Every structure is written in structure tokens, then in C-alpha cells.
Here is the input.
Amino acid sequence: MKQMDERVVSTGGNGSGRPSRQINVVLRSSESYASTSSSAQALESEPVAVAKPLSANDPFLEIGRELDSMVGLDNVKLLIYEIYALLQISRMRSDAGLTGGSHVYHMIFTGNPGTGKTSIARIVAKLFNKMGVLSKGHMIEVERADLVGEYIGHTAQKTRDLVRKALGGVLFVDEAYSLARGGEKDFGKEAIDTLVKAMEDHRNQFVLILAGYPLEIEHFLLTNPGLPSRFPIQIDFPDYSIDQLIQIAELMAKDRDYTLMPQSVFKLRQHLMQEKTMTMFAFSNARYVRNVIEKAFRHQAVRLLNQYPTGSPGKQELMAVRPEDLKWEK
Ligand SMILES: Nc1ncnc2c1ncn2[C@@H]1O[C@H](COP(=O)(O)OP(=O)(O)OP(=O)(O)O)[C@@H](O)[C@H]1O
Ligand SMILES: [Mg+2]
Here is the structure.
């Protein structure tokens, strides 16, 4: 029977001088963590906090803080930590005269709308930059219309130009499956072929991340048998639970110095529960929450101007998002 390890690695709130919450990444591995030790059983039943101390100049410090500010996504956080660990150890191995091995970091992100794919891709770009894998660490975000041209040869040229712009960073292709939409004759295929060629020609000079909704990506990979093996890292971005969506809403409000009143949180929760079940396939998760919250800020502003035609509302009033500020169509 496979024994699962659970270790909790703390990546925040240490030595940075700035208090921060911890991201508790639960590391699971199929190999025994301490098979000879009597603590192995304890590990199985209860995660043990191994607060791995990060030095002040550790490249993961800032990345950890950014990950920390994202709600949920434990599997994603874990994978990013694994990549960091691998890069760190590769460095030590090459210092010790061992083979570093060359790794391929092209990735596929699958997940419904608004599950954090673009945000995480930016963090990944930054991590690779800090670890010396990518020289610039920027991200070029493109979709079908940016890659596909209007006549034969145009697509290859457009795609090559974008790859050139992405060198030293990440090329993030959103809704990647749409490149396979039109079949053999479609210029989308030319874009795919050009991307595949660029992966060979510019090995290790950029990281390609294809993103899309799970079913469509699956279909896309089936229609391109050569593709899956070129993307050894696949990350699934699960839908957020209602509690996580509420946490995200509160975080978004807090970041901008607003407070959601308890009744507003209640109203939002009711609405999200309804919305999530009604639009199961197209529900846009954190993006939906962001839109609702931003709309609420506007409604709050209008309400306050009406309420206080002369003079300024107090600080508390300026911060409070009241239930009547939360409005939805329908
Ligand atoms: N886990 C999270 N915690 C806090 N905010 C989040 C989280 N996930 C997403 N968001 C916020 O939700 C919005 C949408 O996220 P993002 O653009 O990364 O999602 P996406 O998966 O790329 O969506 P789409 O498929 O629609 O492009 C952003 O404003 C982002 O900051
Ligand atoms: Mg996106």
C-alpha cells in the first residue's frame, strides 16, 4: 500500500519584517517521508508543520507571499513549490558536480473561467525568472485572434513575432483549444505547428502555457497526439467553493479599503449559491465575484453621493458596502 506523507511547509511570515499569513502547502508524496522513524505514523494521521525557514534573500519569499494572497488552490501552490524545490536542488547538484538534467517546463492549465489561471501564470513567470530559468520573467498573454492571420503564411509570421516577444518569459495562450476549432484547413493548425517548432528552436528560452476549459483542452489534446508529451506539467484549477468565493470577495474588498457588512456577506452568499447552481457550466468563479464587488463599489458611491449631498460621509461610511449596494441583473 502506498503511504502518503503530509508535510506542511510554511512559506510566509518569517524574517521578512512584515507580518503575513502562512500558506500551508500540504506536501504529499508517494514515497515514505520517514519510513524508519516512529514518527511516520504520526505524520499519517496529522500534518506536521515543518516551517522551512526561508532566508531573507530566498527567491521563494516573494512568490510565497503572492501565492499566500490567493484563496484555496492548494494543488497549484504545491506544484509551484515542487518546481521551486527542483530548481533549488538542481542548482546545488550542479555545484556538487552532479548532472543538473534539463527539464521541460511547458504547461497546460485547465480550469473553468475565473479560477486563477492567468494570475498563477504570472506568478510562474516570476518564479522562473527569480530562479534564473527565464531571463526576463514577463508574460505575453495571447488568444487565437493574436496568433491566427488572414492568409497563408500570415499566421506563422504572427505567431513567430509573438514567440519572439515572449522570449525570456512566458507565452500564455488562452482558450488554446480554439486553435484546433476549424480542423485541418484552418489557420489555427498553422499556429499550433509554428508553436511546436518554436518550442524546439527556442528550447529553454521561453515557457509555453496553454490554458482552457477542461473538456475543451482534453478534446484539443486528443486531436493533436504529438502535443501531450510536450507539456509534462498539467495543472487543474478547481472551481471555488462558496466559502472560498466569499473569502475572495472579502479579500478584494479589503485590498481596496472597503468592508463588506455582515448582512452584505449573507446576501452575497445566498446569491452565489443560486448563481453557481443555475449556471453550472459557465459560472465564472472569482471573475464573477470581482465583477459583483466592483459594481457594488459603484453603487455605494452613487448611494453615498445621494445620501450626503453636501459634505463627506465619515470614514466608516466610505468603507462600508451595504446589502443595498449589492445588485444583480435579473
Ligand atoms: N484564488 C484566488 N484568490 C483571490 N483572487 C483570485 C483567485 N483566483 C482568481 N482571483 C481573481 O479573480 C480574477 C480572475 O482570475 P484570473 O484572471 O486569474 O482567472 P482565469 O482562470 O484566468 O479566468 P479566465 O479563464 O476567465 O481567463 C482576478 O481578478 C483574480 O485576481
Ligand atoms: Mg485568464
Observations:
- Residues 117-118, 174 surround magnesium ion (ligand 2) (CB under 6 Å).
- The longest helix spans residues 285-307.
